[in-house]
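Researcher: If convenient, please comment on what follows.
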Amino acid sequence: MNNSLEDLRVLRKKYIFKCLNIVNNFENKHMTSNIFPDLVKLPTSEKLLLLEQLWDSIRTEPADFSVPDTHKKELDKRLETLNPASLLSLNELKNQVDTLIQNRKEG
């Protein structure tokens, strides 16, 4: 398997895990009622599998929504000011994500 593809999969799993933590923290602090109470009770490993399955299902379905013009204009504006020299390589991005995750574990 291609290392770049495997790196992307690892980064995706780390990102999903981070999103799951954010959602769990939000639910714990802000939700007075839960629409899916059984989902909250699942172990983290099962929640991650569920999230991954949801992302995969969304990825394979045709988009049934349109991007608002304001978002398109904002993207165009950002692309005009993009400095390619400021972009990170995959390894640099991976290192930054790993550092952020390690800092959160320590902090």
Remarks:
- The chain has a mean pLDDT of 80.
- The chain has five helices and no strands.
- The radius of gyration is 18 Å.
- Residues 3-30 form the longest helix (28 residues).
